[in-house]
Sequence to fold (595 residues):
Amino acid sequence: MSQPHPALALRLKPWRAGVILSLFGLALGGMVVRAAWLASVQNDFLQAQSDQRVQTALELPAHRGKIVDRRGAPLAVSVPMTSVSANPRQLELKPEQMAQLADALEVPQPKLQKQLTDANRGFVYLRHQLTEEQTERVRALRIRGLSFETDFRRYYPAGEETGHLVGFTGRDGERNDVGRAGVERTFDRQLGGVNGQRVALRDSKGRIVDDAGETLPPQHGRDLALAIDRDLQYLAYRELKSAVLANKAKGGGIVMLDVRSGEVVAMANFPSYNPNNDERADPEHTRNRAVIDLYEPGSTMKPVTAAMALEEGIVKPDTEIDVGDGTFTIGKHTLKDTHHDSRFLTVSQVIQQSSNVGSIKMALQVPRERHWEYLRQFGFGTPPGTGFPGEASGLLRPWKNWQPVDQAVMSYGNGVAVSLLQMARAYLVFARNGDLIPVSLARNDGTPEGVQVVSSRTARQVRDMLELVTQKGGTATGAAIKGYRVAGKTGTARKIRDGGGYGNGYIASFVGFAPASNPHYVLAVMIDEPHAGAIYGGVVSAPVFARVMAEALRLNGIPHDLPDPVWVDNAPSTPRPPTVAAKVAAAGDVPEPPR
Fold:
């Protein structure tokens, strides 16, 4: 019988066995304490860490609201698109698939390869806004690790016709449809909505495998109805573009307001841009000059001067003003009428024949502070209040800084700067009963409250004077419309150079309304630096007014307010309101800058 191994006969000393058992007991106790601590104190943290490794929040994009015209015609809509993304760390891409993916995404292969070989990036967008056809080509490659998200692209059916007014959207971080310009920016909060979220489960490779059951639905944006009429917008843009090109001008703007509501029913600029392409990256293309840019209004300011003098009781429509030889000297400055035909002119003739001297003599009888207050009440020096980005307040210096020559030249529209929208709004006072109402880009179904600027009597008196401007003897016979009484005023102002003083360029403008007996629309037209020969508002801008206004009245079924011709001895004779028998050249409203 064999003997047991000597090692088996060894016995541990009692104290050593106790140490070993104690160590095992301490380790076991530590594990129990650690488990209890993790299960209680660290439970929320550990659960969150676990969720992060198996759960992911998927964004549910909110659908941006549509922009439509006053009749519901679409001006801006969001078209569903697809964005493709990937995690370079988890992407399973075979070498031959790189070229196929680049071709399907329609991106350069070197750019794609650079995106996908960066192991430090856990997420990268490969392409935004893929069409359905492009998306299907990418899916057909069956490449593991690609993610597809619903995206939206903004589309503008009217293109360049409404580009400056409607504006466009762009990407801001993770959000694609963010208003960047125009109405899109003005009403971004209303249109944009709020994105939702969906919690989903993913596997160890980051692939979505199931929903976690928690969903926060998106709050879709609200639709917006603008005040503009797309038919009138097209008409205004077409005629403006034609006039700018025909006159070889630098550009132009046009604004049409509804007299009853103050709504902007048409607003356009030329040159324009198409918000559906990359032209929108150039601020020079996208700036809405009718709202943002300033110019000296010239003689279109004279009706405001006449209204001020009438309201103050200084003159009446038939008050004669001695304009002398057509010059007026203040200190070192000599101001002139471009056309001088008679020494004495009534107030009505001053407006009809666009006399600078007559306007000066009326203005200088009004205290500077009162003159300034009238200009403010007509809306000059303050923004029109549409909320449009960059909306101009204009330039109206404090009356305390005025010298007599400043007040004199302001009477005929020099030394003050306005936007075309401000000028159109000011003429609402004459087209209405002397009150000024807010202007609105959005459709307004209510009745706006106005602020009385002049009495209804004064407004009617100036309206009668403005009718004379478009009749024989006035500076804007080109604004006349067959069958309608038309009221308005021409303006031809020299442009200010960047360094100060006047340059050689001109702004030719016309602001008016029709029918004069019951005004429906106010229309302002401005042509910047015409170079085809004519420079005067009565020749360059008034015909644009006539073409646009005539068609607008016809489209809306506005009845004629002039009687049909009466035939006498086989010759037609059209009864019209009495005109002042005075001859005046088309250049009668050209201002002479201070010397």
